[in-house]
Write a structure and sequence with these properties.
There is one protein chain. It contains 2 helices and 3 strands. With 65 residues, the protein is of the alpha+beta class. It has a single domain, classed as Rhinovirus 14, subunit 4, CATH 4.10.80.400. The termini are far apart. The mean pLDDT is 82.
Length: 65
């Protein structure tokens, strides 16, 4: 491997808008994010599934015999 072309990896502090903090390895020492696994609607289960439910009902009506 060539010397001097690879970035240095350091422990990085990731800070979310909700206040949650994580430590990861990165080439940047500080990372600011808007959504993390604690406040994301996908991970917390608060994501609305109305469109999917409507599609299922439409399918059932179409193929009901």
């Amino acid at each position: 491997m060539k010397k001097g072309i690879h970035p240095n990896y350091v422990k990085a502090k990731v800070v979310c808008a909700c206040g949650e903090e994580y430590e990861v390895y990165s080439t940047k020492p500080n990372i600011m994010v808007e959504i993390c696994k604690k406040c994301s609607p996908i991970f917390t289960g608060t994501e609305e599934r109305k469109a999917v439910i409507g599609q299922i009902e439409k399918f059932k009506r179409k193929y009901k015999k």
